[in-house]
Amino acid sequence: MKKKNYLSPKKYGWIGWSLICLISLCPVLFYFYIYHDGWSNDYNAWIAFGTLWGAVFGSLAFIIAIRTVYEGRKNAEREQIFNLIDLHQQKVEAVIYQGNNISGYDAFRIYAQQADKYLILHLIIRELKLHGVQQRQFLSDCLSILQNCTQISIGQIDIGKYLMISQSKAIPFDEWREVAYTVSCSMSVEEKVQAIAEVYAQIYRENGHFLGQYFRNMYYALKTIEQSSFSKDDKTYYAHLYRAQLSRYELALGVFNAVWELSSDDMVRLLLQYDILDDIYREDIVLLFEKGGLTPYMRIKELLQTYRKMKSKKSQ
Question: Quick check: pTM over 0.90?
């Protein structure tokens, strides 16, 4: 059985015209309510009556005009938000991996995997430099492989050499992921933030001409949503609509970009406010590798909140 649509536009149209007719009759009804003897021949009475209703309808016209302007502003803001969402897709397609023909989401996948490899290397090399294999025997195999791959000592390996090391097929990154996570468990949250920041600084030096523009666009999209005249629920809806466009690899790189030295507290605040990184994948960042305990997003929030505290202390 077909359900009747009692709220159809056609019925709304009849209701609207009925209200207009009723409002139009109000002056006539009001006139006879005051003057019981029919139409007045007094010119001054008609002037007073017209002045009264001119003011009333003038006020109504002003209210309608204000409402129209307000709705027009909201429509313009809504269109601006959708334009920014469309622009986001263009920014994604403009990201290219090291001048190759790999672009868009595939480029983000490679960048995110590269950032994770850098972080794995960074955690292991950092630990070897700080403690050596005497205190971390489980890193002895890592030390041997790194020395064979680079032909230089651990003390001479800096983050600028990570690209060369990460491309070595001799390094079993899938196995090293668990090793690096074990190392990270002994680090403070501040040290983890610092490690991510140092890794992304190198990623940015290599590819910042693409990634910088992309993340600036993300910031202004979220800022535009926040500064709109929509209700809090509507702002959250549009922010989540924007988040729905982000791939898992964009979210992973978003974590790295959020906590490095050139990021801003306002950007991190917006990411937290609208839970933009809520759908982060556990497998995409080594610090989230553990299968138990905190959820991936809870760990990300901990990193972002710690970054804000560190940023606040530096600015004081």
Answer: no
